[in-house]
Amino acid sequence: xxxxxxxxxxxxxxxxxxxxxxxxxxxxxxxxxxxxxxxxxxxxxxxxxxxxxxxxxxxxxxxxxxxxxxxxxxxxxxxxxxxxxxxxxxxxxxxxxxxxxxxxxxxxxxxxxxxxxxxxxxxxxxxxxxxxxxxxxxxxxxxxxxxxxxxxxxxxxxxxxxxxxxxxxxxxxxxxxxxxxxxxxxxxxxxxxxxxxxxxxxxxxxxxxxxxxxxxxxxxxxxxxxxxxxxxxxxxxxxxxxxxxxxxxxxxxxxxxxxxxxxxxxxxxxxxxxxxxxxxxxxxxxxxxxxxxxxxxxxxxxxxxxxxxxxxxxxxxxxxxxxxxxxxxxxxxxxxxxxxxxxxxxxxxxxxxxxxxxxxxxxxxxxxxxxxxxxxxxxxxxxxxxxxxxxxxxxxxxxxxxxxxxxxxxxxxxxxxxxxxxxxxxxxxxxxxxxxxxxxxxxxxxxxxxxxxxxxxxxxxxxxxxxxxxxxxxxxxxxxxxxxxxxxxxxxxxxxxxxxxxxxxxxxxxxxxxxxxxxxxxxxxxxxxxxxxxxxxxxxxxxxxxxxxxxxxxxxxxxxxxxxxxxxxx
Length: 570
Hints:
With 570 residues, the protein is of the alpha/beta class. The chain contains 21 helices and 21 strands.
């Protein structure tokens, strides 16, 4: 019997996601004797797949962004095919009788579905088993809404590996996403408490490494994996075991990885970071959310700002490529300027490394934010989420409008961008940090905000790209005029203007000497040759060639500072 498992999204981008949860479910269904098919993509493409494959049942993974899409698709499927429709996923804990009536879906399945979904399908398709015995099941029976409590899977090692061969997307490669455990010991006020969320269960590291090796075997282009665990860094010994295994894997294959980290936990053994970086850690996510310690405590994050600053500084000094973090906008009222101040501190501590984004506070089902907004002095707007995505807030501090919260986010993003652009403009980024961002983006497809901001500055991007390709070097005090060959980072005809009767570049008027020097920086002659020629043309006002030489060096450094010039050595 064919079972179509679906994740639909208007934001879907080909090649960007694995939707690994569907494939773990597919593995469990296959082990139970079903034929799973997995679809992930835009909703307008799903109906054609249902028509083509004629499944015996359809299962949807529902989240905050797609639940309305699922409601409409479910009605179409029920109208045209009369087959069972099941809705699970993280949003399922917030769905009830009204959703079943509106969507015409048959069942809501809450919690981890690898055990309960095969049991449900056996009961409804093979008449094998009783619905009342299935954990986490909600349905309308004889006009009455009934539900059973979900149970969690204690031993994750008993689960089959993901069945990527069940995908309907023949041109999509998989294996980027992996989990090594489920659950989180923390209870942050804004985090959706899905069933089993607060009970940590860990897979054995040998099994995790086996899955990674299998993914590498099946995907020759795989060079970056994302560990999806909420708190991968709970146990030092386990991290060390994972790192030892990754170092062995990396002997045969270039592979880097990402994980999340709770600073409050790892602060006592930060010295493990060099081992993680050596094992391929390229990007580390830490939770901050606010620059106001009072608000962080309200969120129940169990972390101190001082520890965050210390950790970011240490990780940067260890050579970590990217430290990702998020700040929430629209949460409990903060001390004015506290978050902007912390952001500036982090950018100063980790220029070119700290990767900061912002997001509106969401009131997910089951969260303290949704159930008791008064506790946080918050007000909710449009609780269904039907009219807003992350582009518009529906949680605000009491007394503050949604428009004001949008403006707050705009101002915070302005602080981030202006601080980053200032660092770029003033050459305050270490070349090694920038080169790591280029490698992350161009080799592994991991584009940090630093890379994007450098790319938004054409001169800086062209300059650093030349350095990244090793086609040039940055100027330094040890210039050797006899062997250094200066090279422009751009094409003159595209960038130089003469509309005002004199040469201008990037809005700067060039003197005749500056213009003639730039003309000669074509990578074809040494600085010594250029200096000799220019001294003959412009040397009269100078006391001697030594004075002229000093002037020339100053110009070269200014050109380098403006990202106009690199050099190479012959």
